[in-house]
């Protein structure tokens, strides 16, 4: 298993991690298989979405913060229930096909680490299975 760190800059943030994941895949030497990206946190997630127009990410975060507001009479004493809810909506892992040693993504697709309780330093785990 490979891992790397992501530093987020805002309370909610989406960071393009495609290059780090691709580097982890490359380091395995596996040419054909499946890459699993796993976020070992309860207030962050991972998703694939558009890499061309940064306004897509801006709009996604803006709407998520409207649908799941930061304060809404939550009971959880840590005060970050909105982040827990967003993390589960996005999910903590995804799989990408690896072929020719490269992540197989659409032209406009990138992998994004999704921060919902930042800013802070986070960890991403990557495992590649060949075959
Ligand atoms: Zn909490």
Descriptors for this entry?
single chain, 131 residues, alpha+beta, Jelly Rolls, three-stranded antiparallel β-sheet, 27% helix, binds zinc ion
Task: Describe the protein.
The protein has one domain: Sandwich (Jelly Rolls), CATH 2.60.120.460. It has a five-stranded antiparallel beta sheet with strand order 1-8-3-5-6, covered by helices on one side. It is built from three helices and eight strands, in the order ββαββααββββ. It is of the alpha+beta class.
Low-confidence stretches: none
Number of helices: 3
Bound molecules: zinc ion
| CATH topological fold name | Jelly Rolls
Distance between the termini: 16 Å
Summarize the structure.
The chain is an alpha+beta fold. It is built from three helices and eight strands, in the order E-E-H-E-E-H-H-E-E-E-E.
Topology (elements, then pairings):
Layout: E1 2-7, E2 13-16, H1 18-28, E3 33-38, E4 44-50, H2 54-67, H3 81-90, E5 93-99, E6 102-103, E7 109-115, E8 121-130
Antiparallel strand pairs: 1-8, 2-7, 3-5, 3-8, 4-7, 5-6
């Amino acid at each position: 298993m490979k891992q790397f760190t992501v530093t987020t800059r805002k309370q909610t943030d989406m960071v393009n991690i495609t290059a780090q994941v691709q580097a982890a895949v490359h380091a395995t030497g596996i040419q054909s298989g499946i890459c699993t990206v796993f976020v070992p946190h309860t207030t962050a997630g991972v998703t694939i979405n558009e890499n061309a127009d940064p306004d897509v990410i801006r709009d996604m975060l803006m709407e998520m913060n409207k649908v799941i507001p930061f304060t809404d009479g939550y009971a959880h004493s840590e005060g970050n229930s909105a982040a827990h809810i967003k993390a589960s909506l996005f999910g903590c892992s995804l799989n990408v096909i690896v072929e020719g040693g490269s992540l197989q993504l659409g032209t406009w697709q990138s992998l994004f680490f999704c921060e919902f309780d930042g800013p802070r330093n986070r960890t991403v785990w990557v495992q590649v299975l060949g075959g």
